[in-house]
Every structure is written in structure tokens, then in C-alpha cells.
Amino acid sequence: MKKIMELSNGISMPQLGFGVFQIPTHEDAKKATLQAIKAGYRLIDTAAAYMNERAVGEAIKESGVPREDLFITTKLWVQDMGYEATQKAIDHSLARLDLDYLDLYLIHQPLNDVYGSWRAMEDAYDAGKLKAIGVANFENDRLQDLMINNRIKPMVNQIELHPFHAQFKRVQWLQKQGIVAEAWGPFAEGKQQIFSNPIIKKIAQSHEKTTGQVILRWLTQRGIVVIPKSVHEERIVENFAITDFELTALEMDMMSTLDQKQSLFGDMHDPETVVTLEKMHLDYDER
């Protein structure tokens, strides 16, 4: 049985989940999600901006797994920020997924009318549409501000976390606040030859595991939720098999030496990045 994380409101969240970012087609997303559920994953992470909520919803229906056994996350994109727009976006995501409620709903980026959106999410949480609410890509200072000035504290912050961007202090602060850290891009999207890194390979060989399994184990041993993505059934199954070994303190330290202390996916503090994200108007029904 996989480890469960308890959110600040008492809701249980699987620590190992399946992400569907950058899966190119409806059929591919549906097939991969079905394979993941068959392999044992119960946390499925999507987003309105991924434009595959419908595919995920179809996979959920066809899986045969009871709804209450699944933990479904989706996210609010920048174009839908603000109180009334967020109310509509929640209902649209529920319709695309063909669900009555979401287990976790996240503000995808710390941009636009964050306060209006958060208050709409609080109301949807009170109404039972959302079982838990949180954010993604929020720096700790922005998150602290949100906590001070609103009624309900975010329960999750989904951020970039992988061996090359370990974010130790950021994660420690989140955990101190009772906010679960969730890793997107745990494999750094294959950048910098992560799967053939000599340090990770050495650790993997000592446990007769793959480098991917070692990376996921390193994150989960830090108390982080992980959502690896793959469209290959063999890799989907492999990524789920990380509970039968444990990294030693020395191996955890060896992994820590890989930290480059900077993002591999752009700087949110760069005004041009903000402009780019704000201009990304997405057609969710495109696929």
C-alpha cells in the first residue's frame, strides 16, 4: 500500500500519483491514465491548461475504480482568474471531467486576481465541490501573504522539484506551515541527462533499481508528493514500484549534491515570463 499524506483539513492524499502534462493527444492521455489506474495509481493530476481533462474523465469512468478511491486534481489557468470567472472555471472542469467534486483544486500560477479566485475556491470548498484547495508555483512570500489575508490556508503547493532544483529551504518552510509540497517535473523532463547521471546510477545499481525509481524515492523520503508522467506502460508500472527499498542517509546526501539551486524551466521573477503566461489564452475544448 502506498504512503498517504494527510492534508491540514484531514483529507488523505496519495503520496505517489500520475501526471498528464504534455501528453499530446486525447487518446494518448486517456490510454496513459487508464494504464496508471490499472497499475495502482489513485492520484491523477491534470489541469485545464493541459487540455486533457475530458480524456482523464473518460479514463476514470472506464477504469471501474470507485470514485471515492481516486484523488483527482485539476488547476485554474490564468485567463480564468477572478471570483466569478473562477466559479465558472470550476464548473467547467467538473463538466469536462464528468465529476461531482474535485479532491484538489489549485491556482496554477501566482498571477492576475489571486485573491478573487481564492475566495471563489473557499466558497466552492464550503459547498463541497472541492475537497481540498491549494496553489502551484507560489513562492513562500506570496503564499504567506495569501495565508494572512484569507480564511482558509492553502493545503498544497505544487512546485518544481527534482535533483537539480531541490529547494530544501522552500520545502522545509512549507512543511513547517502544514502545507504539503508536491513535485512537478520530478525527472526535470529529462534535462541534463538526468537518467544517466553517474551519482544517481550508482545509487540505483546498489538497490537494483532504475534511476527514475531512485529519484522518486528521494523525493518521497523528503515527505514530498510526486506525480511522474509517462506514456509508456512499462515506465508507468516501474515508477509506481518504489516502496520496497529505502535510500540511506548517505545516499540522500549524495543526491543533495546534485542541487544547482536554480530552476531549469524559466524565472517567474522575469517580467517577460509574466507577460508570456498572461497572454496564454487557451481553448480547453480544442482537443
Features:
287 residues; alpha/beta; TIM Barrel; 8-stranded parallel sheet; two-stranded antiparallel ribbon; 11 helices; globular
Would you kindly provide a written description of the structure presented here, covering whatever features stand out?
It is built from eleven helices and ten strands. The protein is globular, with a radius of gyration of 18 Å. The two termini are 35 Å apart.
Write a concise synopsis of the structure shown.
Helix content is 40%, strand content 13%. With 287 residues, the protein is of the alpha/beta class.
- How many helices does DSSP assign? 11
Structural class: alpha/beta
Total beta strand runs: 10
Low-pLDDT regions: none
Q: Order of strands across the biggest sheet?
A: 3-4-5-6-7-8-9-10
CATH superfamily membership: NADP-dependent oxidoreductase domain
Q: Please summarize the sheet with the most strands.
A: 8 strands, parallel
Q: How much helix is in the residues? A: 40-55%
Order of helices and strands: EEEHEHEHEHEHEHEHHEHHH
Shape: globular
Please identify, by name, the CATH architecture: Alpha-Beta Barrel
Write the layout of secondary structure elements.
Layout: E1 4-6, E2 12-14, E3 17-19, H1 26-39, E4 43-45, H2 53-63, E5 71-76, H3 83-97, E6 104-107, H4 114-126, E7 133-136, H5 140-148, E8 156-160, H6 168-176, E9 180-184, H7 198-207, H8 211-221, E10 225-226, H9 233-240, H10 249-256, H11 271-278
Parallel strand pairs: 3-4, 4-5, 5-6, 6-7, 7-8, 8-9, 9-10
Antiparallel strand pairs: 1-2
Helix pairs in contact: 1-2, 1-9, 2-3, 3-4, 7-8
